[in-house]
Amino acid sequence: MKKFSLFTAIAIFAAMAAPAFASCDTHAEDDQAVCASKCEDQFLKDQQGWTADMDKIKGNKKACDEKCGCPQNSKGL
Q: CB within 8 A of 32, min separation 6: which ones?
């Protein structure tokens, strides 16, 4: 029973901690975070247009994230 409890605690901790390292932080003060934040801001701004070409906007977001070193930020696009 002790082994099962210990294993469960480790699994729960790993499940909670993994998403924290899955993407670049856009709230920090380093250059990568500032770049990633600008990409996100531009993506949201571009989506607001009535005639927005979503394929082009998504491509621009992916290219911007690649340039910043955060390709995982646009993985779900």
A: 24, 68, 69, 70
Whole-prediction pTM: 0.61
Each domain of the chain, given as residue ranges in start order, spans: 31-74
d(CA 61, CA 42): 8
Vertex 62 angle, CA 15 and 70, to 5°? 45
The sign of the dihedral angle between the CA atoms of 32, 52, 56, 73 is positive
Question: Longest Cα pair distance anywhere in the chain, in angstroms?
Answer: 60
- The rounded distance, in Å, linking the Cα atoms of 14 and 58 is 31
pLDDT, tens only, 18-72: 444 455 766 667 788 889 899 999 999 999 988 889 999 999 999 999 999 988 9
